[in-house]
């Protein structure tokens, strides 16, 4: 039985969770509160880097979300979440990596600011928005008139980027300037897998309170 250690607020967890749902696999969810439970010996035995998500598959343990997605695609290839066309495959992998390396880092200060925890200057926050804008315009061009980044087929690129981009309006980055991405987001959010994995307002509030406590404990 597949077992996913996750947190509903975590983008990294959500992309694995959505992949499991889209593939129709049976799995067990193990919630992590991240209130210190990630440092418990039982969890550190699975992931000494004390991060989520972690996937267990009959004793085989995987960490790092992109590696987990590739593992799931290789072991459970139906339905496929990767295109066979080389150019489409290249686009999918490019979008996955750019989401993690170019879009997620500038999202972090904006998220902290939106929760009232940031001490970044307005100039730094504007720079973060400009960096995200560059990524979104690139994605807009790569999506073109296709339904998904893999043409007509939902792919891992849509899952990776689609767990982050829908949250950008809450960070002061409306999607109206990226009409193709906005339509794409609407298609994703209508899917059962996205609806099932969205955190509730209560969970978001509890996460903010927990984060506030953790930040107040820093020296």
UniProtKB/TrEMBL annotation:
GST N-terminal domain segment(s): 1-80
Alphabetical list of Gene3D superfamilies matching this protein: 1.20.1050.10, Glutaredoxin (3.40.30.10)
Domain called GST C-terminal: residue spans: 85-207
Superkingdom of the organism of origin: Bacteria
InterPro entries: Glutathione-S-Trfase_C-like, Glutathione-S-Trfase_C_sf, Glutathione_S-Trfase, Glutathione_S-Trfase_N, GST_C, Thioredoxin-like_sf
CDD domains per the UniProt record, alphabetical: GST_C_family, GST_N_family
Residues in the signal sequence: none
Pfam family, one: GST_C
PANTHER family: GLUTATHIONE S-TRANSFERASE GSTA (PTHR44051:SF8), GLUTATHIONE S-TRANSFERASE-RELATED (PTHR44051)
Designated name of the protein: Glutathione S-transferase family protein
Lineage, highest ranks first: Bacteria, Bacillati, Cyanobacteriota, Cyanophyceae, Oscillatoriophycideae
């Amino acid at each position: 039985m597949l077992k996913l250690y996750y947190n509903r607020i975590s983008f990294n967890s959500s992309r694995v969770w959505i992949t499991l749902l889209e593939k129709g696999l049976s799995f067990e969810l193990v919630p992590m509160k991240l209130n210190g439970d990630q440092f418990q010996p039982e969890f550190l035995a699975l992931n000494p880097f004390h991060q989520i998500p972690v996937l267990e598959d009959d004793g085989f343990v995987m960490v790092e979300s992109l590696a987990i997605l590739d593992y799931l695609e290789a072991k459970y290839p139906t339905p496929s979440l990767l295109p066979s066309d080389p150019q489409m495959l290249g686009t999918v992998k490019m979008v996955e990596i750019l989401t993690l390396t170019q879009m997620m880092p500038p999202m972090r200060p904006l998220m902290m600011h939106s929760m009232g925890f940031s001490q970044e200057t307005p100039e730094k926050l504007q720079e973060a928005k400009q960096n995200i804008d560059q990524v979104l315009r690139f994605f807009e061009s790569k999506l073109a008139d296709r339904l998904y980044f893999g043409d007509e087929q939902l792919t891992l690129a849509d899952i990776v980027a689609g767990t982050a981009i829908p949250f950008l309006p809450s960070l002061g980055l409306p999607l109206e300037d990226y009409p193709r991405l906005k339509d794409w987001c609407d298609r994703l959010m209508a899917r059962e897998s996205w609806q099932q994995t969205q955190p509730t307002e209560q969970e978001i509030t509890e996460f903010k309170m927990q984060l506030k406590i953790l930040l107040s404990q820093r020296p």
